[in-house]
Design brief:
Elements: H1 7-17, H2 30-33, H3 42-57, E1 64-67, E2 74-76, H4 80-88, H5 97-109, H6 124-135, H7 140-149, E3 156-158, H8 163-172, E4 176-181, H9 187-193, E5 202-205, H10 206-209, H11 216-226, E6 233-237, H12 240-249, E7 253-256, H13 264-271
Parallel strand pairs: 1-4, 1-6, 4-5, 6-7
Antiparallel strand pairs: 2-3
Length: 275
């Protein structure tokens, strides 16, 4: 049940690569995809901007790096509909994977209560609704098995297998690291299970700070946790609206994962840190 992320982002993440994530090509190495980079500011424009930042801040252009979780730091290991169907067979789920996917889409398009926050505490009410509607199965044991599955390192893997090297180099250079994620309270134990929680100095999780991207509040909270000003931080995420526009509204710099940058080594190098 891909039990995480914001409505728009999670919806897209699940549809692209299933489970609770996405990004097939985005997780490949930067060298493999550099030829297909879309035209945005253009490489010259990006270099000019980096030179401009270095003229203001020195060789290290940012004091803090903020990282999105689902779709950037980590991705689902199996397609969502496949997992829903496989686990659900013993509970009487009859829908095909295509039917589950289509119903999942419709469920996500529905408004959620009076609050815009879907991930409140463990977000069980929200995910119970999504799972029941997607599969036609209201069995509580089925839901709990799915919910618990997406809490484990079996359900997820790191998008960039070389991320640790980049994060260690950044911290050694004095750059503070934080996670900014639309997620419920399972994120911290999940990152612990993936042995990457110790890479970060702070986490701003939507279920904890009561604000979801693209609301600038969650980025401001992260900067506050790290003790930096928003203009001294850069956020990296895979959703243009939630990650790029949201971070910029908060006053942070922002790079789109899978477009501006393709690996955390590249992120570090753009900040001015060699890996």
């Amino acid at each position: 049940m891909a039990l995480i992320a914001t409505r728009t982002k999670m919806h897209r993440v699940l549809l692209q690569n299933g489970a609770f994530g996405k990004v097939g090509a985005m997780c490949s190495s930067s060298s493999a995809v550099v030829e297909s980079r879309p035209v945005g500011l253009g490489m010259l424009g990006l270099k000019d901007y980096e030179d401009y930042r270095r003229s203001l801040y020195g060789e290290i252009t940012h004091k803090a790096l903020l990282v999105d979780a689902a779709g950037t730091l980590l991705v689902p290991s199996q397609p969502m509909a496949q997992i829903y169907r496989t686990i659900g067979e013993k509970y009487g789920v009859k829908y095909s994977e295509d039917e589950i996917l289509n119903r999942y889409r419709r469920a996500y398009e529905q408004p959620w209560g009076r609050s815009r926050l879907r991930y409140v505490n463990d977000a069980r009410p929200f995910w119970q609704y999504i799972v029941s509607y997607s599969t036609g199965c209201p069995d509580s044991q089925y839901f709990e098995e799915l919910y618990n599955y997406y809490s484990t390192n079996k359900a997820w893997h790191l998008c960039d297998p070389d991320a640790e090297k980049a994060f260690k180099a950044l911290r050694k250079a004095g750059v503070k690291l934080g996670v900014v994620s639309n997620f419920d309270t399972r994120l911290r134990p999940l990152l612990q299970a993936l042995n990457c929680d110790q890479w970060f100095d702070a986490m701003a999780v939507s279920a904890e700070v009561e604000a979801e991207k693209p609301n600038p509040t969650i980025f401001l909270k992260a900067c506050d946790f790290l003790g930096v000003k928003p203009e001294d931080a850069v956020h990296v995420g895979d959703d243009r609206r939630n990650d790029v526009w949201g971070a910029r509204d908060a006053g942070c710099d922002a790079w789109l994962w899978g477009s501006d940058v393709y690996s955390f080594k590249e992120v570090a190098q753009r900040i001015g840190v060699q890996v």
